[in-house]
Amino acid sequence: MSNDYQLVIGNKNYSSWSMRPWVWMRHHDIAFETIMVSLYTSTTRQEISKFGCGTTVPILIDGDIRVWDSLAILEYLAEQHPEYNGWPLDSTARAVARSVSAEMHSGFAALRSSLPMNCRRTIKGLKLSEAVRQDIDRIAKLFTDCRQRYSHDGDWLFGNYSIVDAMFAPVVMRFNTYGVVLDGEPGRYLETVNSQSAVREWIEDSRLEKEVIESVEL
Ligand SMILES: N[C@@H](CCC(=O)N[C@@H](CS)C(=O)NCC(=O)O)C(=O)O
């Protein structure tokens, strides 16, 4: 097992993709050094390119190995640390968890572009488009289905904490910022995420950051 991980991330306030592996590693107490690159400056691309793989963060560095893309990093970490069960053990639940994670990874474009992650802010009264409402409804349905069918032994989407929970943590941050309230089962899931100590730590760190990226501030 490696203790030499480095995780290259963007600003904690804004970098939704970076939050996923960071929170998963902190949750499991996996040792790593965080390297922060400020996003959307004139030198961002150049700084990220120095790591010798993609042009976006997060990037996981494990010796000579570079893994870029948040889901690829989570998959890699799950392989390196099988004791943490990256995915549910049951094969049906695992197939659903992978599908839900992939849907999050490649979908919800309206929500992502209209409600950028901004952990330290609370923005009231924002008018949501129909497309954003549809994304929110779909996410609430996913939360409800996962909780009702697969969460018998814990508070997470599939009971025990798994990759899918890390995948959705940034969405919960967006809901916090823009006042998206979910009732019932999905609402209880939001509380679970918001009280996770790794998530609390991420939010606290984001409040200490000084950079303001005007292009993603509403
Ligand atoms: N699919 C990638 C997307 C990563 C991504 O777009 N990261 C943004 C920050 S949240 C980035 O690095 N942007 C820098 C840029 O585009 O210059 C992942 O999941 O890691």
What do you see in this structure?
- This protein has helices at 16-27, 44-49, 70-80, 91-106, 109-114, 130-150, 163-178, 184-194, 197-208; strands at 5-9, 32-36, 59-62, 65-68.
- It has 218 residues and is an alpha+beta fold.
- It has a four-stranded mixed β-sheet with strand order 2-1-3-4, covered by helices on one side.
- Helix 1 (16-27) packs across helix 7.
- The structure holds glutathione.
- Glutathione binds at residues 10, 15-18, 39, 44-45, 56-58, 69-71.
Task: Write a compact overview of the structure shown.
With 218 residues, this protein is of the alpha+beta class. Helix content is 51%, strand content 8%.
Q: What overall geometry do the principal axes of the alpha carbons give? A: globular
The number of strands is 4
Main β-sheet, spatial strand arrangement: 2-1-3-4
Mean pLDDT: 96
| Largest beta-sheet characterization | 4 strands, mixed
What string gives the helices and strands in order? Answer: EHEHEEHHHHHHH
Structural class: alpha+beta
How is the CATH topology of the largest domain named? Answer: Glutathione S-transferase Yfyf (Class Pi), Chain A, domain 2
* Residues in helix, %: 40-55%
Q: Count of helices? A: 9
Can you list the ligands bound to this structure?
glutathione
For the record, what CATH class of the largest domain applies?
Mainly Alpha
Instruction: Specify the CATH architecture of the largest domain.
Output: Up-down Bundle
Question: What share of residues are in beta strands?
Answer: 5-15%
Q: Stretches where pLDDT falls below 50 for ≥5 residues?
A: none
When the domains are counted, the total is 2
Termini gap: 43 Å
Radius of gyration: 17 Å
